[in-house]
Design goal:
The chain is an all-alpha fold. Helix content is 91%, strand content 0%. The relative contact order is 0.16.
């Protein structure tokens, strides 16, 4: 077998494995989100809280061991690190409440960003070639943002549900892609071998 053909087979195999693993992880994550939404939210919050503690330690380390920085910069890094650690510890102390607060903040941010996006789309209405679609997009975006802001709990649940369903669907698609890529790899290698024989 020639070196280029061997490299191509190796590339196909690597891509297939990556697609299969990412598909299985997405599928399992989606199923977990759909079956245990509250526990999943708590786990995500715990990961975020751990990130805050680690980031806080890094900032404190930067403040302490960075001799090249000025005094105020070092103090700022240490204070920021302490703030991150305190936020992480508070989140760990009551993961359920922290998960609800995090979901609430994310949903409110999404609602505000949709409203702003709709207003920006309206401001570009005169410059856009497809005014009807731009107007429709802007109105839907503003209405969706307002609905999210006035019912953040329902929006948060719907967001979690849509995320879980999306992960399941994307996971299945990735797994199918991994399988079909295996067939494509076989066809590719047989074509290359036939061309080399002629």
């Amino acid at each position: 077998m020639s070196a280029p053909l061997s490299e191509a087979k190796s590339l196909f195999t690597s891509i297939r494995i990556t697609l299969a693993i990412s598909g299985v992880v997405a599928l399992l994550a989606g199923i977990v989100l759909l079956v245990w939404p509250v526990k999943s939210a708590v786990v995500v919050t715990a990961i975020f809280a751990a990130y805050l503690v680690v980031a806080g330690l890094v900032y404190i380390g930067l403040g302490i061991f960075s001799g090249a920085r000025g005094g105020w910069s070092r103090v700022g890094h240490i204070l920021l690190g302490l703030l991150y650690i305190v936020a992480g510890v508070i989140a760990f102390a009551n993961l359920g409440a922290a998960a609800a607060a995090l979901a609430f903040v994310v949903v409110i941010f999404i609602g505000i960003s949709w409203i702003v996006d709709g207003v920006v789309a309206l401001s570009l209405l005169g410059q856009d070639g497809s005014r009807v679609w731009t107007l429709l997009y802007a109105l839907l975006s503003i209405v969706a943002g307002i609905v999210v802001l006035f019912s953040p709990l329902v929006a948060g649940f719907a967001f979690w549900l849509i995320l879980g369903i999306s992960l399941v669907v994307l996971g299945i698609i990735q797994i199918v892609r991994a399988i079909t890529l295996g067939k494509d790899a076989k066809e590719f290698t047989s074509t290359v071998q036939e061309d080399a024989a002629h």
